[in-house]
């Protein structure tokens, strides 16, 4: 029997989602040391060894149902899992997990979720029907709250908190310099971490445009791009394509990084250019100024929540705008770092509230 079953996008070598699991488990265990947790994962043996939990194969519905029947609570959490922009397959899977939990008599919580976009009418109706049956929903941003309201989700208590990744202790003992040295970066080199991903809405000549921005940072500022794949190896190909288009030297981390290793590498950067949301959350947590490449509304929503509208749309990529934003952010680096440190304290406190709500629900009779 498990106290909590956690469902999310785990076991896919996506740094952001692994950071969420890392953070969720850490904050829950601060509240309750001896929690019995089972995580649904694509690679259950690896997840079990990495996090010290029980783990089940996320597609073995028979075993999941058996575990649910004798467990207390489903924690559905972290990330933008409930959306159908990429496909309907994902949202239907997650809604099925939530529905199964309710049928098995479990308490259910959406834990710091980002919601939407949910576009298809059938998916919207199904999401509203199932989400109205959960016990409590915490969200990481205002735009997700708006999406839930537009779906007609009104019955559960809905609370806006913050992304669990803000609770991660960034005072890691690992040295990012070890990994940059392995990537061939000379000592003393100023770096800008670049985190990009392939996506269907990228402008037709995105690779060339991004390479131009990277050459600009080298030639005007003496700052060199370090490409860091947030999902390995999925992000490697586009990173290498951009590198080949550049005139100047660039570097890449050619391996999968753990959460602690990722933070240590990013801490070596002067600036971060991020496309995946959690590259920007990592940057904020480390108080490193960032420029966003927006492929999804959640990315622009996050930057707006920080009052930092420093982003470029990848579908209509404006190279001159991107270079101008880079120049501005870098020139204001010191002032922005101080503001980010203040913001981090607020977001960390809000993110920790997620675990409080979860334990309160677990204990509720």
Task: Explain how this protein is built.
The chain is α/β, with parallel strands linked by helices. Helix content is 48%, strand content 18%. The strands form two sheets. The protein has a seven-stranded parallel beta sheet, sandwiched between helices. A six-stranded parallel beta sheet has the order 10-9-8-11-12-13, with helices on both faces. The protein is built from 14 helices and 13 strands. The chain folds into two domains: 4-160, 3-Layer(aba) Sandwich (Rossmann fold); 176-344, Rossmann fold (3-Layer(aba) Sandwich). α1 (15-31) packs across α14, α8 (206-221) crosses α9 (236-245) and α8 packs parallel to α13 (319-331).
List keywords for this structure.
365 residues; alpha/beta; Rossmann fold; 2 domains; seven-stranded parallel sheet; six-stranded parallel sheet; 14 helices; 13 strands; 18% strand
Report a brief summary of the structure.
The strands form two sheets. This protein has a seven-stranded parallel beta sheet with strand order 3-2-1-4-5-6-7, with helices on both faces. Strands 10-9-8-11-12-13 form a six-stranded parallel beta sheet, with helices on both faces. The protein is 48% helix and 18% strand.
């Amino acid at each position: 029997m498990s106290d909590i079953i956690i469902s999310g996008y785990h076991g896919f070598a996506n740094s952001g989602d692994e950071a969420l699991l890392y953070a969720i488990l850490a904050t829950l265990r601060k509240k309750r040391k001896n929690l019995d947790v089972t995580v649904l994962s694509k690679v259950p043996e690896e997840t079990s060894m990495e996090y010290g939990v029980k783990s089940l194969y996320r597609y073995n519905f028979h075993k999941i149902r058996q575990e649910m029947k004798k467990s207390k609570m489903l924690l559905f959490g972290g990330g933008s899992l409930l959306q159908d922009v990429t496909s309907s397959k994902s949202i239907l899977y997650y809604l099925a997990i939530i529905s199964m939990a309710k049928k098995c008599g479990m308490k259910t919580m959406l834990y710091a979720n980002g919601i939407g976009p949910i576009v298809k009418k059938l998916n919207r109706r199904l999401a509203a029907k199932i989400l109205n049956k959960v016990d409590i929903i915490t969200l990481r941003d205002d735009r997700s709250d708006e999406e839930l309201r537009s779906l007609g989700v009104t019955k559960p208590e809905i609370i806006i908190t913050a992304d669990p990744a803000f609770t991660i202790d960034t005072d890691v003992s690992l040295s990012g310099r070890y990994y940059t040295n392995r990537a061939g970066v000379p000592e003393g080199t100023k770096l800008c971490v670049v985190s990009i991903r392939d996506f269907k809405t990228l402008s037709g000549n995105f690779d060339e445009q991004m390479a131009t921005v990277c050459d600009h940072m080298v030639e005007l500022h003496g700052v060199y791009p370090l490409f860091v794949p947030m999902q390995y190896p999925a992000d490697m190909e586009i990173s290498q394509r951009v590198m080949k288009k550049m005139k100047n030297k660039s570097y890449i981390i050619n391996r999968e990084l753990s959460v602690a290793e990722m933070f240590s590498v990013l801490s070596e950067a002067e600036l971060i250019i991020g496309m995946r949301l959690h590259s920007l959350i990592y940057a904020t947590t480390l108080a490193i100024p960032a420029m966003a490449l927006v492929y999804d509304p959640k990315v622009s929503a996050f930057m707006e929540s920080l009052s930092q509208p420093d982003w470029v749309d990848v579908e209509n990529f404006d190279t001159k705008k991107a270079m101008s934003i880079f120049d501005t952010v870098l020139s204001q680096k010191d002032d922005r770092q101080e503001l980010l440190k203040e913001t981090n304290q607020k977001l960390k406190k809000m993110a920790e509230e997620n675990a409080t709500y979860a334990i309160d629900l677990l204990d509720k009779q």
